[in-house]
Amino acid sequence: METGIHELTAGYALDALDPEERSAYEAHLPGCEQCQGELESFWTTTEALAVAASGPAPSTALRERILADVRAEPLVVVPFEPRRRRLVPVLAATAAIAAVVALAVGLWASDLSSQLDDSRAALERERANAAVLADPDAHSVAFQKGTGRLVVAADGHAVLVLDGLARAPAGKTYETWILAGGPPVPAGLFPGSGGREVVGVDGSVRDGYLVAVTLEPAGGVDVPTSQPVVTSEPI
Amino acid sequence: MEATASTVLALPGSQVRVAMRKHHAHLSDEALVALVARGDEDALTELYDRVSRIAYGLALRVLRDERHAEDAVQEAFLQVWRSAASFRAERAKASTWILTLVHRRAVDLVRREERRQAEPLDGEDTAGAAPEQTEEAAWLRFERERVQSALGQLPDVQREALELAYYGGFSQSELAERLGVPLGTIKSRMFAGLARLRELLDESAQEGSWKPEFTS
């Protein structure tokens, strides 16, 4: 009956469908705008039911447990494409490694494939960077300056996940530095993309170190000549 | 230059973090979810601080056990962290999405644990606690009364179906068996009840002169 599946919208919003009907409804939903609209509207109602159930605050330990969970997560577990439901297995073939990079930094496949076309060397770098991002023991810290994160694998290999660092002007390059308390150590050059990108750090990053990026004359320099445009927190 | 490095190293990270949290406090729930999708822990913390009280209350209502309720909230927030990229702001508010995840988790747990007790809750057990004077507590009390008043205007069989399903975690077929009525009747009651509740809540929201944002 036509009304049958639509009527399930209420049961679905209340999480009251039996497993088979839940599956049937979820299969029906993407193609039915009427049910989508109804469900969105019912969800507002069930949210009111949720608010009405509020009582004492949870223990402060719960907040800490959730944060500990999150910090223990590798950076990788989100659906690769909106339509694909399965999680991508980590660290299988090269394609999967490339996928891990895409997952970790939120790139879609199309962006990535054009990057991979560049050269075999680029692919090798991607693989090394992906290994860092996929390392379940990797640590990551936010930036004090700039937008993105520094991710450091257990073995000291590190990558910068940069967000929106503009392409370097003509005659200039970005230069990465490892800051270990002494003079900054040069750790590679890159052009910047203006979008989201993963840049490997040449050199080993240990506990307490920071990584910074400056804008320098093309070809790079041995000692920074400008203030950092990106500075990480200490790892 | 060495000066660059030492300047950088002298920056106290904790101050930067506090500044970031303050920055996050002005963001919408939906913007926070977008940041969570990029791996921003502070954004997740801010979301948790905004939603956790309702999320935990909901889980506790369904599971009736503090440890299980915390487990449900914990698992739901891990799911938020993992699947934030799949959240579509045009489909639902972020708070709605998170509470949906919490409720689904709680219901799955209660069905597995078979912990459900026979009687529907009257919902008054938490309201008897010493009233808090915070703005959030006042708003929650106001909302609780508004929803309970709307529930009270439903026909008994509809209210019973909604409460046993949403707060009790009973599936439609379990309810049909428990109440001794055909499954089709349960489905109809649930649909009619939820649709009527939606109307009543819309009406009372328009009447209410004080309706702060959920996230404020």
Report on this model:
- The complex is a heterodimer of chains A (235) and B (216).
- In chain A, β1 and β2 (148-152) form a beta hairpin.
- In chain A, strands 5-4-7-8-1-2-3-6 form an 8-stranded antiparallel β-sheet, covered by helices on one side.
- Chain A is an alpha+beta fold and 235 residues long.
- The model of chain A is unreliable at 76-99 and 104-119 (pLDDT under 50).
- Chain A is elongated.
- In chain A, 38% of the residues lie in helices and 21% in strands.
- Chain A has helices spanning 2-13, 19-28, 33-52, 60-72, 94-105, 109-116, 120-134, and strands spanning 139-145, 148-152, 158-163, 172-179, 185-190, 196-201, 210-217, 230-232.
- Chain B folds into 2 domains: 16-115, Orthogonal Bundle (Rna Polymerase Sigma Factor, Chain: A); 122-216, Arc Repressor Mutant, subunit A, CATH 1.10.10.
- Helices cover 71% and strands 0% of the residues of chain B.
- Chain B contains 10 helices and no strands.
- In chain B, α5 packs across α6 (94-113), α7 (135-152) packs across α10 and α9 crosses α10 (183-207).
- Mean pLDDT of chain B is 81; it is low at 1-19, 122-128 and 209-216.
- Chains A and B meet through α1, α3, α4, β1 and β7 of A and α1, α2, α4, α5 and α6 of B.
List keywords for this structure.
heterodimer, A: alpha+beta, Arc Repressor Mutant, subunit A, 3 domains, eight-stranded antiparallel sheet, 7 helices, elongated, B: 216 residues, mainly alpha, Rna Polymerase Sigma Factor, Chain: A, 0% strand, globular, disordered C terminus
Gist of the model:
Chain A is 38% helix and 21% strand. Chain A has 235 residues and is α+β, with helices and mostly antiparallel strands. The chains are: A alpha+beta (235), B mainly alpha (216).
